[in-house]
Amino acid sequence: MHADAAPTPAAGPRTVGSEVGPLRQVIVHRPGLELLRLTPENKDELLFDDLLWVRRAQEEHDEFRELLAGAGVDVLLLTDLLRETLALPGARSFVLDHAFDERVHGPAATPALRAAVEAMTDNELTDTLIGGLTKRELLERVDEPRSVVLHAMGLDDLVLPALPNHLFTRDASCWVYDGVAVNAMRMPARVRESVTYEAIYRWHPSFVDDDFHRWSDGLDDGAATVEGGDVLVLGGGAVLVGMSERTTPQGVERLATRLFAAGSADRVVALAMPKSRLFMHLDTVMTMVDERSFIKYAGLGMLPSYTITPGSGPGDLAIADHAPEKMHDAIAYAMGVADLRILIAEQDVHAAAREQWDDGCNALAVAPGVVIAYDRTVTSNNYLRQAGIEVLTMPGAELGRGRGGPRCMSCPTIRDGI
After folding, report:
1. Which CATH number is 118's domain given?
2. Can you tell me where the transmembrane regions are (predicted)?
3. pLDDT tens sequence across 25-59
4. Residue 174 is a catalytic residue
């Protein structure tokens, strides 16, 4: 933690005890200005494959929130949490200190930038931190400082980049049993997302009085990156982590070490995933739908895996390697079950690849055997229903173009164990 961080409290009742136990509370982010900042020129840098029709995406997201509320879930909006957090002077200073840095904006422009946003209302500042700030918008508030950085920018260039990936609230922070990891993000376009969550968990009234561990500080973890889309809380002290293009082995080891030290988990199974955008996170190819069932993309195949358990001394790790054909066995053993039920919809290779791209495997369980999925993944949804899983569908024609499904768009903060 940084020197200005609050002391880490002891763990308490706020927990996420599984992937499929009844979901009690979740953070989501309704699309807004940040997606209107996407253009054909910047979408790749901002990690989007396409431009979304924002109004329709908002309507789809509203239906997502209605499904969650109908399932008895307390839905927290990220923008509300951030706005209420910024009302607190210490939190506001913390966020601005991390948003404006002379190593990014230059020593000449940084003071003027900081002064401009310092004067904003909490609503304006919330919109700016997530939606970004153009040079034109800046100059409506202050005279242009003598800055090479600013002079070299066009009027509509973003002085403060937008954060369109805040839509996927799963990644920058994830709750694992009785604590939260604010994650170091692998891609530069997402690094500032961690600042949002760090401020909320340190200062917001919904969290500040709760007792929970902090598994990582995403502002100071370097190459030890972990993203929440790769982390599945299996229940009973077991955790499954995908080592994807976004989550590194050193990040997994650091997470395991902290979980073990607190006694919150005693088994971590790590999967060596292909390092490609197609397999961006584990939850894009494999998610849990009931107490021992997973929906899985056929193209994932079987992967080398590693079981990590506490070693003989403090901070030591014991690591067992497993051949690819033992992947499911390693997960089942960690969960304490005889075997897993792996659900793979029967379809040809082209249809399977399209359905995976459309997030057919990215189901969000709201209770054991009850999941939310996009309506566009018809084959996967029908297959789950045939397997006895209740599937609640939401529209995903626009949201799905962002390459993230219901699980990606949700950050559980309270969930029962199995």
Report:
1. 1.10.3930
2. none
3. 999 999 999 999 999 999 999 989 899 999 999 99
4. no
